[in-house]
Amino acid sequence: MSGSAAPSVTSGPQGDARLLAGFWLGVLGVACFAITLPATRLATGTAADPQLSPWFVTFGRAALAGLLSAAYLAVVRSPWPARAQWRDLSLSMLGNCVGYPLLLAWALRSVTATHAAVITALLPLVTAMVAAWALHQRARPAFWACAVLGSALVVAFAWLRAGGNGGFGFDAADGLLGLAVIAASVGYIYGAKVTPALGAERVICWVCLGALPLTLPAALWLWPANAGEIRPSSWAGFVYVGTVSMWAGFFAWYRGLDWGGALRVSQTQLLQPFLAMLFAWPLLGERLDAVSVGFALAVVATVFVGRRVSVSAPASKN
């Protein structure tokens, strides 16, 4: 696929099966990413009870994923990306290896995983906007209506929930989370641009391997002096974000974006905040109430409706 073209979609039964498989791969990737919020909070701890440094978590998880990527690429004997592809890989690297995890880790030192899930719920709409701009994709107005409705439901949920918890309030952590959403969206879409040419698995591997000369030395330098005093649950959270959030989850996510279309599959991210809240229950003790379940069901409905009406218009020739 060229740098400015949208992924092609095959018509007929095989094309429909490919779209459906892409959608569910996107859901699987979102489920993997949903655990990122509680897992990151486990790794970093809180301002009152700090565990691993957000800087170490950011570079350490990317270094771990980079080492796994090096092994995978060696086993499959993957050829090096073309020079023209490194621009998109580098932008994905900045967004997914550095920007999103660092901003998220610092924010989660100050806010709960549930709070972060609400703010990052804007990720689907931002990703779709980046896809429309970067991939020159167009969608029917009904698609955008579903995207806006889903995001509006998330915002309404945030304010309703905040009303029973002493107020919502925007502070520095919310600003970090907002920037994290932008970073993740850029990383997702520019990675998706080279997925048809490189393959979903190879994209995230080259992204992580390309960052390894930076992330591995940084992780070793930032290795905690009190490593033996860090809780096992914090180390478990760190291992998860390094092996799944930063690596294996992208295998499903980029393949889903490729097969199902970035505009369509990006809407499955509307499920992520509610899955994150669900996983935060056993991991962090943050309980899920009936109001949360009700809003989750409403958002799920917008995802499925959006998927049905999201047949893209022809790509722009500009």
TrEMBL record:
UniProt subcellular location: Membrane
Name the InterPro entries for this protein: AA-Vitamin_Transporters, EamA_dom, EmrE-like
The main place the protein resides is membrane
Name by which UniProt lists this protein: DMT family transporter
Segments traversing the membrane: 21-43, 55-76, 88-108, 114-135, 142-160, 172-191, 203-223, 235-254
Q: From the UniProt annotation, give the residues forming the signal peptide.
A: none
Identify its protein family. Answer: Belongs to the EamA transporter family.
Describe its membrane topology: Multi-pass membrane protein
